[in-house]
Amino acid sequence: MVCKSRLLEVGLDKNMKILIVDDFSTMRRIVKNLLRDLGFTNTQEADDGTTALPMLQNGDFDFLVTDWNMPGMTGLDLLKNVRADDRLKSLPVLMVTAEAKRDQIVAAAQAGVNGYVVKPFTAAVLKEKIDKIFERVEG
Amino acid sequence: MVDVNLESTDSQVGSEIKTLAESMLRELEQGELSKAVALVNDLNELRDRTLFNEIGKLTRALHESIKNINLDSVGAASEIEHTTDKLQYVLEMTDKSANRTMDLVDEGMPVASGMADKATALSARWKKFMSKELTPSEFRQLTRDVDEYLNSSASDARMIKGQLSEIVLAQDFQDLTGQVIHKVTDLIRDVEQRLVTLVAMAGHVDRMTGIEHETESVKEERENEPDIKAEGPQINTANADVVGSQDDVDDLLSSLGF
Q: Mean pLDDT throughout B45-50?
């Protein structure tokens, strides 16, 4: 187990470019700080799907962390737009959201989300989901 | 609160209709068709009068409720507008507090890791000294570094202590926003009560005049629309459609093949 996580940490590119999308600046800051603690420092922020989508289309991002409930374009619509875009469709997407209804989680899964974290969450959960996503993507 | 005695109106109108209907029946039995038709007109008039009365009452009740909610008809600052300001204040306070806390943590974190790093490095050299592996000059350097570390760690710890107590102070928003939220909750409860009275009155007018709004099938159709929308945090996690924890999310996703 120790060996495996060690390998993973070597395998995970700490320089990968991550876009954090949330309408609340404090939540963006929390996610950014947690990612920084995990060694990921190459992050950018957007406050909803409408601003995030063009950034993704022009910005060679490696990973998207998005909230669901946002004014303008929601996280679910952003996810659907990403999956419908030829150049973005294989981008790993982690949803970090307060939306906790079964129907919603199923809808996010059907739209092609790679991981789903419900708020409030811990640093350990965030790390576990990121590791799992890239384990699957690279494996 | 608007007080309208609905029951007495009901029974009054009911007995009037009964009297009219009975006399109509009597006229018909006696073959007085034109008198019976005239009574049909009276019935219609009664219905109209009742309708006007109910509308009048509803209007008065509405007016009274609006006055009570303190909504100003000319659009000046109302209770509701004040409420929006109050909630905006809650938003600002919580935002400020969260950022202040994170600023303090951002300041304190490097100080704490600096202390840990310095202690780890010194500890390695100290072990060498204990197993007599240090040269005299290395030892002299070590004593100077230990001295410096003791001084800096004392001031670093004091700094972190200060930051921790400021983090505690930054939680004062809970008290202030709590008071505001209590006020807003009271207002909403009050408005709800008044609206319930209004709805009851409107329902009464509907019954008196036989107006039907939405049929059940239309209502059902609307409720059955499959629509996945963002709803925000679920307050009642005991609900069966709501996941209780991250473990439930993981179980659900793995049942879907994730």
A: 84
